[in-house]
Design goal:
Layout (H helix, E strand, L loop, with lengths): L7 E4 L6 H6 L1 H22 L4 E7 L22 H20 L2 E7 L2 E2 L8 H13 L6 E3 L5 E2 L2 E2 H11 L8 E3 L5 E2 H11 L8 E3 L17 H7 L7 H23 L1
Parallel strand pairs: 1-2, 2-3, 3-8, 4-7, 5-10
Antiparallel strand pairs: 6-9
Helix pairs in contact: 2-3, 4-6, 4-8, 6-8
Length: 259
């Protein structure tokens, strides 16, 4: 903070894999809460004129009492990760109110791209579908196909993050598409794109279910649309097609290099 004297701070770092947060609650909670607190405290002491963005999460809502969820929806987190993000959200809000800092949270619903980590269901699905299409795999093993999420394109969400820090007054915003799709929809769309029937290749493993499931997350981004003039530009089907195509291209390139 002393050396750089940043104008804008985007705090995106976290242990963000929800399933792993059940396996190692302590590192998830400790890393995510303390990491956020340290950055905010350093900013307050050394770069108080900076603008701070915290990557909040739709997982904070858990099994919310209302759908879709907006900035006023109560939080009911159902995972150590969700709990840690609620704490980070409240730390950010407290620093804004107590110390008059420009500190805001973007409550991001699921945001995907070809760069998504392999541990996440979206990347697992598109990678396995690509491998099956190329004859490199024969089965996709998943848990709960009925869980519904609001999936958007990561590049759109980064644009919204930047817009949050360009406003005259700091405020929190939901970043979402307003549409939810089930994991089954994701799987079916990915297989359809390569001309295959998902039912022939998909197997359910009960061990892959979360200890406490969230049934549906869907964001209401009306405030973001109105105040920031922001809209998502990539629809669900196009996003999944983009990710599948990227996997096929990458796998094909690696195969040709080995040959």
């Amino acid at each position: 903070m002393d050396k750089i004297q940043p104008d804008e701070i985007y705090h995106l770092a976290a242990q963000s894999f929800v399933s792993y947060s059940f396996e190692d609650e302590f590192s998830t909670v400790g890393t995510n809460i303390n990491g956020t607190h340290y950055v905010l405290a350093a900013m307050k002491e050394r770069a108080a004129r900076a603008r701070f963005y915290f990557a909040a999460s739709s997982e904070m809502y858990g099994n919310a009492k209302e759908t879709p969820q907006d900035e006023d929806t109560a939080f009911h987190p159902r995972s150590p990760y969700g709990i840690s993000k609620v704490a980070g959200f409240q730390l950010t809000e407290n620093y804004r109110q107590a110390y008059k800092l420009y500190a805001v949270s973007g409550i991001c619903f699921n945001h995907e791209s070809p760069r998504r980590g392999f541990e996440f269901v979206s990347r697992k699905v598109v990678n396995t579908v690509a491998r099956i299409k190329l004859g490199l795999a024969h089965e996709l093993v998943l848990g709960n196909l009925d869980a519904k999420r609001d999936w958007g394109y990561a590049a759109d969400y980064v644009r919204a993050m930047w817009l949050l820090l360009q406003q005259s007054e700091p405020a929190d915003y939901v970043i979402a598409t307003g549409e939810s799709h089930s994991v089954k929809d994701l799987v079916e769309t990915a297989f359809k794109h390569v001309g295959l029937d998902y039912e022939k290749y998909t197997t359910i493993d009960d061990r892959l279910y979360r200890p406490s499931e969230i049934y549906e997350l869907r964001g209401n981004y009306a405030k973001t649309r109105k105040k920031l003039n922001w809209e998502p530009s990539v629809k669900f089907d196009r996003l999944i097609y983009m990710m599948v195509d990227s996997e096929i291209a990458s796998l094909t390139e690696r195969s040709s290099k080995r040959a």
